Structure formats: structure tokens, C-alpha cells
Amino acid sequence: MSDQPPGTRRPQSRGVEPPMPRWTARDRYRVTSRLERMARAEQHAAAFALALPAASNRRRHLDTVRALNENGLRAIVDTHGWPDMRAFGMAAATNAVKILCSSRDPDFLRTCRDLVRDAVLAGTCQLPHYAFVADRHAVLAGQPQTYATQINPATRRPYPVRDPEATNDLRAAAGLPPLPSPPTALSALSASSRLVPAGLVVAPAVLPPALLRKAAAGC
User: Fold this and answer.
1) Is residue 138 in a domain?
2) What is the 8-class DSSP label of residue 182?
3) Tell me, what DSSP letter sits at residue 145?
4) In contact, 120 and 128? CB cutoff 8 Å
5) Cβ atoms of residues 85 and 202 within 8 Å
6) Which tens digits make up the pLDDT trace of 83-110?
7) Which of 53, 66, 82 is nearest to 192 (CA)?
8) What's the N-to-C CA distance of the chain in angstroms?
9) Which range has the worst mean pLDDT, 17-21, 29-33, 59-63, 109-113?
10) Would the pLDDT of 67 be above 80?
């Protein structure tokens, strides 16, 4: 994995905050509003698809919504870069992660994972966001995840993790709650709640850059 993904720029020195792009107020309003609409559409479609009795047309509708959302997020990233919390606010950044975590395109996920990683290092994104995006990419790529944020809806257990013994320590450092014990307690999770628990947007903890790079090295 390249230390500097294409289209991104790292801070020139640690502790020096990079200049914020000069988006207009209209740009910010359009991006935040669009992300809010897409996240709401995903939430409603997911709730409808999971309602009983289940129907295949509901699942197709959810897949359609997610594909449209992915295209919308791709357009935002292509135009503005990753919509981090410094430029667009916490709500927009969180909505972007919710949408991205439904993507099935590993290349797009890898690109956004690197952008989110750089935003964490620059102090413009929370580490929980990176944890979810990195895990989503790993699972989709058939690799073990790091933070155990992605739950297999069939088993209600986390997909395979890279280092089970260190998982809760990494989750704690990322501001995520520990995994329930025993693992069967995860059966209470719904297929949609696995993506963004409440702790995703309230935990301020960020790993030191050296530890983040170590965690990201195998992603």
C-alpha cells in the first residue's frame, strides 16, 4: 500500500494543520444535504427490506438505493475529496461512512479508506470512521478485519479478525466499545445496526499516527 495514495496529500509536518479547501457555503450545503438524503434513503430502504414478512422486491429496492448512493458518494469524492468533518461537519462525515460501508466495490473502498486514513492523520476525521471503512474493505476483499466492526448477518458473529486477542484493545483505542462476551450476544444485533453503532460519532479517541500506520499496514 502506498504511503501517499494518488490524489491525496499528507500534512507537511506532524502537528501542522493543512489549509482547509476553500469550498463555498453553497458547496457545503449541497454536499451535506445530498449526503443526508442518501443516508435517509438507505435507512428507510434497509428498514423496509428487513421488515417481516421479507420479500425479494424489498431487497432489490435496497440494492438499487445503495447503488445510487454509491454513485452519488463517488461523485462527491471525485469533486471534493473525502467529505471530512472539518470541511463538511460531523453529520456529513458520518453519513458518508454509512453510505460507503454499503459499497460492494473494493477499489472504491480502498481509495476511500486511504483518504479517510489520511484525514485521521491530519486530524479532520475520527478514527472510528477509519475502523469501519478499513474493516468493510478487508471483508469485501476476503481478508481478516482489524476492529471487528463487520458482522456476518447469517451467523451474527464478526467476520474473521486479524488478531482476536488484540481486537478489544484496538477497538478501545479507536473509541469503539468492546465486543460482547460471549460472542453469541451479538445475535441481538440487527443486520443494519452492525454498520454504525452509537459510539461511531461520539468517541474522540484517535490512535497515535505510529499505531494507526501499524494497524493500517496490513489492510
Assistant:
1) yes
2) S
3) B
4) no
5) no
6) 999 999 999 999 999 999 999 999 999 9
7) 66
8) 8
9) 17-21
10) yes
DSSP class of 45: H
pTM comes to: 0.74
Give the model's pLDDT for residue 47: 86
Residue with cell 420479500: 55
pLDDT of 192 above 80: no
Asked if the model's pLDDT at residue 196 lies above 50, the reply is: no
C-alpha cell at 155: 451467523
Domain range spanning residue 139? Answer: 25-217
- What is the biggest distance separating any 2 CA atoms in the chain, rounded to whole angstroms? 56
Q: Give the bridge partners for 151, in sequence order.
A: 158
Task: For residues 29 and 35, give the distance between their C-alpha atoms in angstroms, rounded to a whole number.
Answer: 10
Identify whether 16 is part of a domain.
Answer: no
Beta-strand relationship, 157-158 and 151-152? antiparallel
Q: What confidence tens digit (pLDDT) does each residue in 143-169 have? A: 999 999 998 888 888 999 999 889 999
Name the domain count of the chain.
1
CA distance 28 to 2: 30
The answer to the question of residue 200 being in a domain is yes
